[in-house]
Each structure stands twice: as structure tokens, then as C-alpha cells.
Amino acid sequence: xxxxxxxxxxxxxxxxxxxxxxxxxxxxxxxxxxxxxxxxxxxxxxxxxxxxxxxxxxxxxxxxxxxxxxxxxxxxxxxxxxxxxxxxxxxxxxxxxxxxxxxxxxxxxxxxxxxxxxxxxxxxxxxxxxxxxxxxxxxxxxxxxxxxxxxxxxxxxxxxxxxxxxxxxxxxxxxxxxxxxxxxxxxxxxxxxxxxxxxxxxxxxxxxxxxxxxxxxxxxxxxxxxxxxxxxxxxxxxxxxxxxxxxxxxxxxxxxxxxxxxxxxxxxxxxxx
Length: 273
Ligand SMILES: C[S@@+](CC[C@H](N)C(=O)[O-])C[C@H]1O[C@@H](n2cnc3c(N)ncnc32)[C@H](O)[C@@H]1O
Fold this sequence. Notes:
Largest sheet: 7 strands, mixed
Strand content: 15-25%
Mean pLDDT: 94
Number of helices: 11
Shape: globular
Bound molecules: S-adenosylmethionine
């Protein structure tokens, strides 16, 4: 099943090269490249960088913090934290092509010293007990059936009293998800749970819940803006389409319905280990 998830995301093995070419075509000057220039492609979740910053605000971070990003993708959230707080971030992701691209993109914007990425599975983390001051995971558990293992592993590697910040797509009350969606072209690799299930899973793994925030209305506006923009001017040059391929417009349209009809919800959970 892990192979199916990784291949869903990594049709394009030369991702950093492809992104670099599209950045140049969009007129970006490489020596002056900033994390903002990358944000349309490397913050691969609903509500983009805004959502990452909202989550990070709750994580008690400073320049001495060592943070784990579980399911780090192209590394956008890890770079946002490192740039904003000066902290060190380790990303782990199932998809090797994403880890390679994340490392290259971090060097482009001068953050290669403060962020690193390695391939691995969230349900079996290759890290020592109590290794990190805090951890986050953004839009990852939708692909993971064994969420109990994932959250127990997160609890193991975070120091006592460290923050675990989760932002995920959850099953809504409006019916089955319409596919394809950005995390799955078919139900086989999609494993959504309800907000109540999620609370039980996190508490069951040993976390204490501090805060739960539902951002579904904001997520609806995000997809409405994205599809309106695409209808007007087409896909932006540097966008998720570079790795999701030609299915992407259909995924975005489905997401407008999924979120408007509350087939999905987006919710953040701030927990303490
Ligand atoms: C929608 S992307 C989100 C990436 C990143 N968190 C972000 O917000 O930009 C989902 C990511 O989860 C990763 N993933 C899925 N299952 C995983 C697992 N079992 N262990 C680690 N990463 C996983 C995928 O490879 C993909 O990079």
C-alpha cells in the first residue's frame, strides 16, 4: 500500500528540475529566489502557507527548537517554520522524489543548513525517543490507515510537554468523498476519519488535546478562489499540477464540491505530549 501512495505523488522523478524550469519560465531570478516564490507549489495543503503559519504559532518555537515534520512533502512547511522562527526542522516523507526535491529547493533559498529531509514511514519513525521539541503533520494521515501507529510514533519521538500540531482533511457529514482528490485518485489509498475519531486517536496515543480548530469555511473559499482563477487564467506555472498531472483541474473541482457539501472538513488539533 505504501508503494501505491508514493507512486500517487511521484510520477515525476525529476521534480526539482521541472520546478526550476517553470520558475525560470515565470521570470524568477534564481539568485534572488525566496520562499514566497515557491509557496504556490511547496505548501501542498488546503489554505497554503497561511495554514502553516497558523499552526506554527501554537508550537512554542524559537531558534533553539528541533522540530519534526511528518509527511514533509516538498518541504514548504518545514522551510516556513525555519525561516519564521530560526528553528531546525527535520522532514520525513514516504516519497523519495519529494525528499530529493525538498532538499534541492531548500538550498535554492539558503535554508539547507536548517532543514533536512529523509525518506521514511510515519508509522515507523527512524528517530530516538524524546528526540524532538515539537512535531507537526499537515495533510498526511488521509493516506494512512494505521493512524494509531502514526500518532503513537509521534508521541514517542516528542519530548514530554512538547507540542504536536496536526492539520488534516477529515471525513465530513455530507457523504462519501468524490474522487479524484489531490491525495488519492481512488478510495483505496484514502483513509479519512471523523473529527470525533481523530480526537480519540490522539488521546489514545497519549496526547492531551489543547485546542481543536475547524477551518472548513476558509477551505471552501480557498478552493473557490483557486478554481475561479484557473477558469480565468489557467493553472499558474508553478503549481501542484507539476506533480499531480492533468488530473489536477478535476481534483480541484471535486474539492470545491467535497468541501461545500461537507463531504470533507479541515480541522487542526493542538496537542501536548
Ligand atoms: C498532501 S501531501 C502534504 C505534504 C506536506 N505536509 C505539505 O503540507 O506541504 C501528503 C504527503 O504525505 C506523504 N505520506 C503519505 N503517507 C505517508 C507515510 N505513511 N509516511 C510518511 N509520509 C507519508 C506523501 O508522500 C506526501 O508527501
